[in-house]
């Protein structure tokens, strides 16, 4: 019986890691073409044939996103946000189910310790809020800190309590990754309530 449970947990963990790798590590559009370097283009000049022009980033995190893309040429805010949305749903569902093994590869050590402590504190018979849907996700900040990329996303998620009352929860989740690493996965490194 224990062996079957271990096999099931291993299969679930492998599935989650594969989904995150596919979402966070995916190359999209022109980024999927190998061997094409970013080519800065002075204003008014036509692009060099065959060169990939990186679109200008916009919004409150534009400077940080540019800094991340300057180190990791495969980074795109759209691809990142797709992966972050998937990670939010996986983490929210795993936390609700009390599945610490599913959470382990997705969280930085201190965040995992906090989530595991909360799961342990609520006990086996407690009914945790159930994830319902992710209503909105926006990148609100980004930076590079000593080779580590950090991107903060404001999530608006709906959760149902034991009495089925649904409430909206707004949180800012910060994901980070060593930008020089071959590992494309971002880990959740901080969670804060939205202002």
Give an overview of the whole structure.
The chain is α+β, with helices and mostly antiparallel strands and about 200 residues long. It has one domain: Nuclear Transport Factor 2, Chain: A. The protein contains five helices and four strands. It has helices at about 1-25, 60-70, 75-95, 100-105, 110-120, and strands spanning about 130-145, 150-160, 165-180, 185-195. Strands 1-2-3-4 form a four-stranded antiparallel beta sheet. α1 runs antiparallel to α3 (about 75-95). The chain starts with a helix and ends with a strand. The model is unreliable at about 1-20 and about 25-45 (pLDDT under 50).
Can you summarize this structure?
This protein has 195 residues and is α+β, with helices and mostly antiparallel strands.
Count of the domains: 1
Note the total helix count: 5
The biggest beta sheet reads: 4 strands, antiparallel
Report how far the terminal alpha carbons are from each other.
Answer: 47 Å
Order of helices and strands: HHHHHEEEE
Class derived from helix and strand content: alpha+beta
Count the E strands: 4
**Portion of residues within helices:** 25-40%
Q: Categorize the overall geometry.
A: globular
Return the CATH architecture: Roll
Radius of gyration: 19 Å
SS strand fraction: 25-35%
Q: Remind me, CATH topology?
A: Nuclear Transport Factor 2, Chain: A
Q: Which strand order does the major sheet show?
A: 1-2-3-4
Instruction: Please mark out the parts with pLDDT under 50 across 5 or more consecutive residues, or reply none.
Output: 2-18, 26-47
Averaged pLDDT: 80
């Amino acid at each position: 019986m224990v062996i079957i449970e271990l096999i099931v947990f291993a299969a679930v963990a492998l599935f989650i890691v594969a989904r995150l790798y596919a979402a966070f590590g995916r190359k999209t559009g022109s980024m999927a073409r190998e061997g094409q370097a970013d080519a800065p283009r002075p204003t008014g000049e036509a692009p060099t044939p065959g060169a990939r022009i990186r679109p200008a980033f916009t919004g409150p995190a534009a400077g940080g996103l540019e800094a991340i893309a300057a180190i990791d040429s495969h980074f795109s805010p759209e691809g990142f946000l797709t992966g972050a949305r998937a990670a939010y749903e996986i983490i929210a569902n795993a936390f609700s189910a009390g599945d610490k093994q599913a959470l382990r590869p997705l969280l930085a050590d201190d965040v995992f310790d906090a989530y595991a402590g909360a799961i342990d504190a609520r006990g086996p018979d407690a009914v945790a809020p159930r994830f319902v849907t992710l209503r909105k996700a926006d990148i609100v900040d980004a930076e590079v800190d000593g080779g580590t990329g950090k991107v903060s996303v404001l999530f608006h998620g709906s959760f149902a309590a034991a009495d089925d009352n649904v409430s909206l929860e707004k949180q800012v989740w910060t994901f980070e990754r060593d930008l020089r690493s071959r590992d494309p996965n971002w880990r959740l490194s901080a969670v804060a309530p939205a202002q």
